[in-house]
Amino acid sequence: xxxxxxxxxxxxxxxxIALIVATAAAWVGTPLRAATTISVAxxxxxxxxxPAMFGVNVGTWEQQLLDPSTISTLRHLRLGMQRFPNPxxxxxxxxxxxxxxxxxxxxxxxxLDRWGKILEASGMQGLYIVPYGFDPTxxxxxxxxxVQNLTRYIVAHHIPVTAMEIGSEEYLGGTINLHQQxxxxxxxxxxxxxxQAIHAIDPAMQVGVDFDLPxxxxxxxxxxxxxxxxxxxxxxxxVQFVSVHAYPLPVVQDDPHLLQSLHDYIRDDMRFIRDxxxxxxxxxxxxxxxWITEYNPYNGASAQSLxxxxxxxxxxxxxxxxxxxxxxxxxxxxxxxxxxxVPTGQAxxxxxxxxxxxxSFGTFGLASEAIAPQPQPVNRLYPAxxxxxxxxxxxxxxxxxxxxxxxxxxxxxxxxxxERPQGPLAVLINARSExxxxxxxxxxxxxxxxxxxxxxxxxxxxxxxxGSPVAPTPGLDTATWDVTSGVLEVQGSGFGSEPPVRAAxxxxxxxxxxxxxxxxxxxxxxxxxxxxxxxxxxxxxSWSPNDIRVQFATAPPSATDALTVRWxxxxxxxxxxxxxxxxxxxxxxxxxxxxxxxxxxxxxxxxLVIQGNNFGPMPSTIPAGGGGVDQGILAxxxxxxxxxxxxxxxxxxxxxxxxxxxxxxxxxxVQFVATPPSAGDPLQIRFxxxxxxxxxxxxxxx
Length: 702
Prior knowledge:
It contains 11 helices and 43 strands. Helix 4 runs parallel beside helix 5 (about 185-200), helix 5 (about 185-200) runs parallel beside helix 6 and helix 8 (about 310-325) crosses helix 9 (about 385-395). By secondary structure, the protein is an alpha+beta fold. The radius of gyration is 27 Å and the shape is globular. The two termini are about 45 Å apart.
């Protein structure tokens, strides 16, 4: 996802040096007022954070790491960890050489020993990337013996490395991997062996494994799910954290939408990560930490990195990641990848810098490399670096973080409170497209879009004067589809007024908010964005802020298809998913009555009998990844392990199939094929997409 190899090459001399935008105005502020001392321990409901939770990536190729000013810069940043070596190719840690694409070994500026000295001088700890995919010779995959030699060397030489991760982005096809087997199962097997080998030498060393975070966590791809299942289920007992790379925004957005999009993506990313840990990590998931080992708002070098908006984005990102449950966050990177803009006439869709034709360059780094097109001097902090330094200084040794979500939901004002021994500190960021007047205590600020203020006080007490609340995010409470009449009714809140429509090619209309996605056939009804027009229109029967009724105009879904209602909004020309809900259809069988479960019983350790009414005929099935079959109606959900058996939605094949031995309108008999539930696990029975009824719970015999 993150395209690491492009980011890890030092930029060549590209253009004449130009002055960058002044970065000292990254926030507005006033002298912090004296306040009554408040103990961190007495804070209610906060997340405890400290500088040790934040880090930065550095590489063997960073000549600037050897500059005398680097140590003072790192100490000023107050970050707790560095991640190394990030070589961008095959790296021999013993000889400090990297193998070039032409087959030549080239010396690197920063060796493992030199990096250790940098760690000591800056007072930081190290996270070392074990080169899983290749051995020191560049001819095969990393052997267990080399991992042991590396660990012994780190321990014997007292290098302050306290964590190691097995490989970097091994789930990506472009990552260098010289192992003969490149499957997630093989990675999981070797990672478990490597973790045990490391712990045999240094029991205190924290070890992590790769986690595959899809670009859109609300629509995870099958490869990501397969990787996470194989790795977490096998390695959870042996490792302490998962290593996640997050570059959430594929295209540059304007300043306020940058902040809004980061909020939504970080929230959704952490929700997906936690769900995957609980689903696949089993009983060992509770001890697994979430380390965001690479993070930058964009998967490209945006010109915004030179502007004050990136100070606000960096502050928001670090606080939200930890608020939503990340244990550590590493910025990509300290130096590196300054890119000159492409002339407007030569711009292509993947060029990020053309959004600001006056920018001299964009960068992933926190500090200057002092090479063209960057200005002198080396290690001059950019806005994100300045903001991180000020934030961590404000946190001190530790603070309790509280996020005031109501300010954001009502005014798109990001409000955080840091409860510290010397008194609370409020961080307020305006994420709207217009200025907002904010009052806290006896102080008032007029914040421009993207502007930030840090001041004494609790953000909970902040008020917005004279501003209108933002339009509420649509909330989807219920969505029912009467397959007899073909009428879909969606109920909830925040739907607003009926959007403008245009003719759909297949009849009916399209509009730019509501989409109905047929998960079974893949057809999309009703939604259009930009130049896109779908081929399955809808007829709007009624539209109010709380209730929408539409009818499928042509080619309606089949009676048993699983449908999802989605709500979109355009952000900087790109669609942003706001809400979605599974549609419950009225069942055609049994005089239009929905399925009703009356009794669930076990017949042996693998066979489950479900009795009731209106089950209808047996649905069509597809092979399941773990054996047996999946189908599109019945779901059996293990509440303890989070595994779902039997149900496939659209093209997704889960890895917990069932063997269906009986299916008639009153009784279904199934057998668990692979990884059955443990005795005593509470199970839930549901017919997704076919009934609004809730779960029915059955507990197998202990």
